[in-house]
Specification:
6 strands, 4 helices, Alpha-Beta Plaits, two-stranded antiparallel ribbon, elongated
Length: 137
């Protein structure tokens, strides 16, 4: 079992996977190529195919695999372009995602340009003065 913190450095990105690909079939692919996939604390292989929960958990066509050591990691990178179920897979070193902000994150924190008082920004009121409307009874 590989539970060390440096296991992230042996993680690959694997893309262009068929939608029918599962964690088990991907594990089988690496085992047939004599590569050892790392295991988590519970003994499960550290393979994660990213799925679309809004579309019946169908594969999004990419995932991540962590290997036990650098030798297996480098051999896995050499499999770039190998065919799985009629598709040439893309294998690259995993890169950390940049810290992204939602386009609405400033609005949620109250830092937006929206003032909350539409009357103040309304062009019908000149110089901030308000017009009084009289109602006939």
């Amino acid at each position: 079992m590989d539970t060390t913190n440096n296991s992230q450095q042996y993680t690959i990105y694997i893309g262009n996977l068929p939608w029918s690909e599962t964690n088990e079939s991907l594990l089988n692919f690496f085992e047939t190529n004599n590569l050892q996939v790392a295991q988590d604390e519970s003994g499960e292989p550290m393979i994660k195919i990213v799925t679309d929960y809004q579309n019946n958990n169908r594969s999004k066509g990419f995932g991540f695999v962590t290997f036990v050591d650098e030798e297996n990691y480098k051999k896995a990178l050499e499999l770039n372009g190998t065919e799985i179920n009629g598709r040439n897979i893309n294998i690259q070193p995993k890169q950390d995602r940049p810290n992204r902000q939602s386009k609405y994150s400033n609005f949620r924190r109250g830092n937006s340009n929206f003032t909350g008082d539409a009357r103040r920004n309304n062009s019908n009121f000149r110089n901030g003065s308000r017009r009084r409307v009289s109602y006939v009874r």
